[in-house]
Design brief:
- There is one protein chain.
- By secondary structure, the protein is mostly beta strands.
- Helix content is 2%, strand content 46%.
- It is built from 1 helix and 90 strands.
- The strands form 22 sheets. It has a 7-stranded antiparallel β-sheet, with no helix packed on it. Strands 1-3-63-62-61 form a 5-stranded antiparallel β-sheet, with no helix packed on it.
- The longest helix has 18 residues.
- It comes from Actinacidiphila rubida.
- InterPro entries: FG-GAP (IPR013517), Haem_d1_sf (IPR011048), Integrin_alpha_N (IPR028994).
- This is FlgD Ig-like domain-containing protein.
């Protein structure tokens, strides 16, 4: 659990105290109105309550001291959204504003330098249109004595670094040219010193004595008047270089223990010493004997991270780098002073933050200045006691946002710092019948929202959270450069070109935003971060994927899919006005005619409205919650009438005119509600109102699945958290389950992923599949929800022998007159063949038809036809349409009349493709494996001696291995099965049974009974048609008669 946050169950005594308060109120209230009662469960007992203590603590705020000199110091009131300081002021030592420097736009560096004669300058880098300026940067310097700004174009040679350092009587800019052509020797860049001249420009001096082959890092130098300390890389290691700013020459170079490419060292410099630090170690040299071995100092304490360091008064100052004032309160660490003379280290402050070196060898640090006050202290260069430079104001956190969705409580609190920022925190309060003790969830934001980004409501900071019940979290608005940005607490953002707006409603991935500047309304898709459409502002509400909008006549509300906004239905709510506010939740639709009413809740079951009290309200499941005066009241409407108001809590009105989702809220997807008191503690408790059964309120991606690119990944949004869910997938019309998926407890969307394989790991075929989803509610109230639908799979091989596109095996039949009929299989138990659905005529006599399956790789089964001359042609199938000679086709080749049998065997050698077996007059068996371009690869002999068979039958997969199998009937009437072997050939034959010579046609027709296994259809000499159901063993069930008079067809396929 995060430090500073406590979650506790409310004590019995606490509940008793509240009941006592209610009883006391009865004496006053009874004479004027019905007594408000504490919200209670149906059995009359008080609901359990969880109390979440505030996370933010009181702490410092106010202008940040950016730099200091003897004559004063520089402060910034805050930081813009890009991290640049805003509203700079130069202050006298007593804290008064000597110069209001205002905002500096496009600031890329700001600070203070003090020359050796005590003169102080403020500088910053800004953009400039001067053509001599490199990369549009310019240097502006403010003379704190004369109060005059001077601007200097930065020469094109000053490309890297660009840091200001003090000199004996002024300042110099340290920079270096670009060295993109440094080459393998890695020479340069060599720093330059630029000093101001009388003409208003900069004199350029190349630093002499720069170590050959060294490259300046461009890091901020440590500096004193007359000396600049920089770091450089050379020959794989970093080194320290001292530069005399008067002569622009190197005076000292020492190597470091750091390799090139490591983090830059912390540069340390005072009047007598220089050195560097890394991690929690510092190496300090004597400036009078720089080549002597350095002192090695270790930062004391239990910290393990990097430390910030400075040299001041003959000691190394060190403070943990991550000690900060920002966020949900200060996170200080001890400030140590480690003397250079080897004496014992001492602690200057038990808790401090943000150590930084300052001018003249001094240092600045933020530290406590009393019981709960903080200040910026200056630590003098002579090592004397730290002195307060500027006190901070003690800031008391504000609680400016609250939402509750699917058992997750989200709170936004302002945190102390410079400036104040907003931090969002989420707490898991559970999804059971009562809120759990809860645990703090990981923070989503890495950094707090800047104060300039936080909206104001009536002059107060506000961060209204509208929970959408989705994985994206709650929706809110921040200000970005004066324009509204609608964001979620999980990081999605839609930047708008309007301002002063509000979020009316949110559900799932969508939100409705009303502009405050141009009278428009945007419907947003937060998942894709875009505006779906813009329309005139009107009362609107979302529930699931349905958008409700107030009509143009009293009481009328339109209903539309949120994706399009096109009206699909109209509701008559019996409201006496055109509603100016709508809220939707399941069967309930709240409407209001304004703050003074009237208001009501339309019940989609009874088609009538239940009148409820007017005022700012939130719609719950079967109740309305509102805040009136200092009372948070609940109106129970679940029984069809409004019960007397019940008191949830005594909650002072505060300064907000509308504090919904700021200080109180409810969970639309649970029975919980929440409120935050003046002490910052948030109370979570059940509503005490029976909840509706769980249901699906929205879905996405459920109707189709292209499995050629990815898995099927639909999503369903339930109306409440689930204990578990399960999804069964079947072929349309079949009772056999192809695949089952399931999951455990989930507070939000159900997002199964189906890879297009059955329970045995085999790929499935194209076509329609039915899915059945079962949702078990987490709260145990009501039955499980069961919903179903159809998903059409594409991108997979066509279903075996399916020529109608309905996902079942079909029979092709040819008459003596050259007509080819499509006779659909039912695909459901018991399994039969229906009347002709399509016919194609004009086929010449002598044609041999082969129902090859999907050869053209378009998702549909094709037909091979060998004409009397031996040419083999592929005719491309289209579901539901018959084959004719005019059907789009492709000639595969000639010479195919050398074969007396062409058998479509399915995926024998190719993966999920249509292979062909061909037998010649000598009984040799050849495999033609399907190719990627819709024809066949070169033939491969896989057997001989097959001339003993009078019939060869392609039956697709019979034994469940996902590969095609071959059936063959010998001259004595025995039927045999050949399974595919590991090399793409055939295994030894397996006997199926005898007596099959009674049939003049046997067809592997695919699955016609919907049990998920491939079947056979056989016609006997009388024209009767029989069905043999495939079994998991690769054998067949006893035959079942399914037709007669089939002798009218010359051949069945």
């Amino acid at each position: 659990m995060k430090s500073g946050t406590t979650v506790r169950k409310a004590a019995v005594q606490r509940t008793t105290v509240r009941r006592g308060l209610v009883a006391a109120l009865a004496v006053v209230a009874a004479a004027v109105s019905p007594l408000p009662q504490l919200a209670h469960a149906s059995d009359g007992s008080a609901p359990a309550e969880t109390v979440v203590e505030p996370a933010a603590a009181a702490g410092p705020t106010g202008p940040t001291v950016l730099g200091a000199a003897t004559s004063g110091y520089l402060t910034a009131d805050g930081w813009d959204m890009y991290g640049n300081p805003t509203h700079l002021s130069w202050r006298a030592p007593d804290g008064s504003v000597a110069s209001d420097l205002g905002n500096m736009t496009a600031t890329f560096g700001v600070g203070v330098v003090q020359s050796g004669d005590g003169h102080a300058w403020v500088y910053h880098l800004t953009t400039s249109s001067d053509p001599r300026v490199k990369a549009d940067f310019a240097l502006e310097v403010y003379d704190t004595a004369t109060k005059v700004w001077s601007g200097y174009p930065i020469p094109t040679t000053a490309d890297e670094g660009r840091k200001l350092v003090p000199t004996a009587t002024g300042w110099a800019l340290v920079a270096a040219p670009d060295d993109t052509a440094g080459g393998a020797a890695n020479t340069g860049p060599v720093p330059h010193l630029y000093t101001p001249n009388a003409a208003g420009g900069l004199d350029d001096r190349v630093v002499s004595g720069w170590p050959a082959g060294a490259r300046w890092s461009g890091q901020q130098p440590a500096s004193l008047p007359g000396t600049a300390e920089v770091s450089s890389d050379k020959a794989g290691n970093q080194q320290i270089v001292l530069i005399d700013t008067a002569t622009a020459s190197v005076t000292t170079t020492v190597p470091t223990a750091l390799y090139q490419g490591a983090n830059y060292p912390l540069l340390l410099l005072d009047a007598d010493h220089f050195g560097y630090g890394a991690g929690r170690t510092a190496w300090v040299y004597d400036r009078t004997d720089p080549q002597a071995a350095p002192r090695t100092l270790t930062v004391p304490g239990a910290g393990t991270g990097e430390a910030d360091m400075a040299l001041t008064g003959g000691a190394l100052l060190a403070l943990d780098h991550y000690a900060s004032l920002a966020g949900a309160g200060p996170t200080p660490a001890p400030l140590y002073a480690v003397p250079l003379d080897g004496s014992a280290a001492r602690t200057l402050f038990d808790g401090a933050a943000t150590l930084r070196a300052s001018t003249g060898g001094s240092a600045l640090v933020d530290a406590p200045n009393g019981s709960d006050a903080w200040a910026t202290f200056r630590i003098p260069a002579d090592g004397s006691a730290p002195a307060v430079l500027r006190p901070f104001t003690t800031y008391r956190p504000e609680h400016i946002g609250l939402s509750l969705g699917r058992g997750t409580l989200s709170r936004v609190e302002t945190g102390a710092g410079s400036p104040v920022g907003a931090v969002e925190e989420t707490v898991d309060v559970g999804t059971g019948a009562a809120p759990a003790g809860g645990s703090v969830l990981p923070r989503v934001w890495a950094y707090p929202a800047k104060d300039a980004m936080i909206l104001r409501c009536g002059g107060q900071r506000c961060y209204t959270l509208v929970d959408a019940g989705s994985d994206l979290g709650a929706v809110h608005i921040l200000s970005w450069n004066g324009k509204d940005a609608v964001e979620t607490t999980r990081g999605a953002i839609v930047q708008l070109d309007t301002s002063g707006g509000s979020v009316l409603s949110a559900s799932g991935n969508h939100a409705v935003y009303n502009s405050g500047s141009d009278g428009t309304q945007d419907v947003l898709d937060m998942w894709t971060e875009r505006v779906l459409y813009t329309r005139p502002a009107a009362a609107a509400a979302l529930w699931g994927d349905t958008l409700f909008t107030a009509g143009k006549v009293p009481g009328q509300v339109t209903q539309a899919p949120v994706a399009t906004g096109k009206v699909s239905a109209t509701i008559a709510t019996d409201a006496p006005c055109v509603p100016d506010e709508l809220q939707a939740l399941g069967r309930w639709l709240y409407w209001s005619c304004g703050p003074d009413g009237p208001a009501g809740v339309w019940d989609g079951t009874t088609k009538k409205s239940v009148p409820v009290p007017a005022g700012h309200a939130l719609l719950g499941d079967g109740y309305v919650l509102r805040h009136t005066g200092d009372q948070l009241l609940l109106t129970d409407i679940h029984a069809g009438t409004a019960a007397p108001d019940r008191l949830v809590a005594t909650l002072p009105a505060g300064g907000y005119s509308d504090d919904r989702n700021i200080t109180w809220t409810l969970d639309k997807f649970r029975g919980f509600l929440a409120w935050t008191g003046t002490d910052g503690a948030t109370h979570v408790l059940p509503s005490g109102v029976p909840q509706s059964p769980v249901a699906v309120v929205a879905s996405e991606g459920t109707a189709s699945a292209d499995l050629s690119r990815t898995s099927w990944a639909p999503s369903w949004t339930p109306s409440g958290p689930l204990a578990s869910w399960s999804l069964d997938i079947r072929r349309q019309g079949s009772t056999a389950i192809v695949r089952s998926l399931s999951g455990g407890a989930t507070p939000g969307d159900v997002r199964p992923v189906w890879d297009g394989k059955d329970h045995s790991g085999r790929g499935i075929a194209n076509g329609p599949y039915t899915w059945t989803l079962k949702l078990v509610p987490a709260n145990g109230q009501g039955p499980a929800a069961v919903v179903s639908g159809t998903v059409v799979v594409s991108g997979r091989p066509a279903f075996a022998h399916d020529y109608t596109g309905e996902g079942s095996g079909d029979l092709l039949a040819v008459t003596s007159g050259g007509r080819l009929d499509v006779r659909p299989g039912t695909g459901t138990a018991p399994g039969t063949v229906l009347a002709t659905s399509a016919s194609g005529t004009g086929w010449p006599s002598g044609s041999l038809f082969v129902p090859i399956g999907e050869l053209s790789v378009d998702g549909y089964n094709d037909l091979l036809v060998r004409d009397a001359t031996g040419h083999l042609t592929r005719y491309d199938g289209t579901p539901g349409r018959a084959f004719t000679p005019a059907t789009p086709h492709h000639v595969i080749g000639a010479g195919w009349n050398i074969y007396n049998s062409l058998t479509p065997v399915g995926a024998l050698n190719s993966v999920e493709r249509a292979d062909l077996l061909a037998r010649d007059a000598g009984g040799n068996l050849y495999l033609y494996a399907a190719s990627v371009n819709g024809v066949f690869q070169s033939r491969k002999q896989i057997g001989h001696g097959y001339g003993i068979y009078s019939m060869m039958i392609g039956a697709q997969d019979l034994n469940g291995d996902g590969r095609g199998d071959l059936l063959a009937r010998d001259t004595s009437g025995v039927l045999w099965r050949y399974d595919r072997d590991s090399g793409g050939g055939l295994k030894a034959r397996v006997r199926i049974g005898a007596g099959w010579n009674v049939y003049n046609s046997v067809v592997g027709v695919g699955d016609i009974n919907g049990d998920g296994r491939n079947d056979l259809v056989a016609r006997d000499g009388n024209g009767d048609l029989w069905r043999y159901d495939g079994l998991s063993s690769g054998l067949f069930a006893p035959r079942v008669k399914i037709g007669w008079a089939w002798q009218t067809y010359t051949s069945l396929l």
